[in-house]
Amino acid sequence: MLVMKFGGTSVGSAQRMQNVAELIRRCSTKENVLVVLSAMSGTTNTLLQIADYVRLGNPTAAVEELNRLEEQYKQTCSDLGIAYIVAPNFSAMRSMCLQPYTPQTEKEIVANGELMSTAMMAAYMQVDLLPALDYMRIDENGEPDMAKTDRLLRGLVTPPDPLSKGENRKGTVLITQGFICRNHKDEVDNLKRGGSDYSASIIGGLLGASEIQIWTDIDGMHNNDPRYVEGTRPVPQLSFAEAAELAYFGAKILHPTCILPAKMHNVPVRLLNTMDPSAPGTLINNDYKKGRIEAVAAKDGIAAVRVHSDRMLLAYGFLSRIFAIFEKYKTSIDLITTSEVAVSMSIDNLSHIGDILPELKTLGTVSLETNLSIISVVGDLQSNNLGFEAIVVEALKDIPVRMISYGGSDHNISILVKTEDKVRALQALSKAIFV
Q1: How many alpha carbons lie under 13 Å from residue 276 in its C-beta half-sphere?
Q2: Following DSSP, what letter does each residue of 34-74 receive, concatenated?
Q3: Which of 51, 52, 95, 154 would you label with 285, given CA atoms 20 to 30 Å apart?
């Protein structure tokens, strides 16, 4: 079985849905296909806005926005040549707009984005729907409940026998929703991080898919950010570890969370471009190429926190007290460097910084620097490879560096710079490494 995931831009119009349908039909001539769809581009943001109007006690504005969205969907159904099958979705949302807001309201409204895109695609292709709400589950911590999801999914989908031949091996197409699920209370919820990519990876991993294809509007994961660097190119192949590093540190095409289920079940992931289906894209698997730097990525919105204290000198337990403060406020640390009397950490979430800093000040002198970016160089960076670190440092000789993290991973050197210096850093690294 092949799992194909299409993002919002890939199904953003009737024409694009028709193009996607043709891609699915071609693949289904070779094997069974399970298709994971996102909401049409722009829909989720509109539904969030509608939910916010309900929260603010303005049902009139919510219904007006919903009416405008409905006109778009009526036109899309007409362009596809199908009946207006999403009328019940809009009727249900209109009812929710007129009821008192609860924390569940937003999740119920937003889920309709995926429910409507899949309903239209299934009707256009005349294939069966596999409702994600019937099998995708998360636990009380909001993490995928793999055991329950596996049990429910296998009750609905029987993976083909790998030794079978003929019609058992090809032709069946099922369409399901990405992103949405039910929580441990059986309420409508969502996977949040990674959204539909995460759904596809979970499904593909549990069913032992031949491949998980993530179709977007970019032809694979590039070796640098094409928005700022000229002449970038897609990386043909990456290991799961390298792809996860790049995704975490700024490569927007893929969320790092969605790598793990595929990696755990050794199912390859291929990143492809819906707008250019012939492009080879990027293959992500357990293969590992030695002696190469593969790509550079950047992550913005970073702050650096520095704690200086003479009490750190020859003391044990000091770092654990610092980490306990960040844990208390559920704030993760990206990079960390230490000296005898100081520790510097980078974070990408400042929502609790007003609580964190006063507690850190009980341990020492604290400083905070914002408007920073992490530049990550990813590839085979094991300690026995000579010269790569020197290339990176030399490339950044004219750029002020706030922090360097190396040795925590065999695949990554991370450098903290001011965001105003990010583009120069990316360009300098690309010139030194890839040209």
Answers
A1: 8
A2: EEEE-PPTTHHHHHHHHHHHHHTT-HHHHHHHHHHHHHHHH
A3: 154
Q: 343 with 373: CB under 8 angstroms?
A: no
- pLDDT tens digits for range 51-98: 999 999 999 999 999 999 999 999 999 999 999 999 999 999 999 999
Residue 248 has phi, psi (to 5 degrees) of -65, -40
Is pTM beyond 0.70? Reply is yes
Contact call for residues 300 and 419 (beta carbons, < 8 A): yes
Q: Cα(176)–Cα(75) distance, rounded to whole angstroms?
A: 23
Q: Are 346 and 372 in contact (CB under 8 A)?
A: yes
Comparing CA positions, the residue from 235, 403, 236, 226 lying closest to residue 303 is 403
By DSSP bridging, strand 128-130 and strand 173-177 are parallel
CB 371 within 8 A of CB 416: no
Which of 370, 366, 323 lies closest to 342, judged by CA?
Answer: 366
Cα–Cα distance for residue pair 34/365, rounded to 1 Å = 55
pLDDT digits (tens, 9 = 90+) for 154-181: 999 865 554 444 444 467 999 999 999 9
| Cβ atoms 120, 85 nearer than 8 A | yes
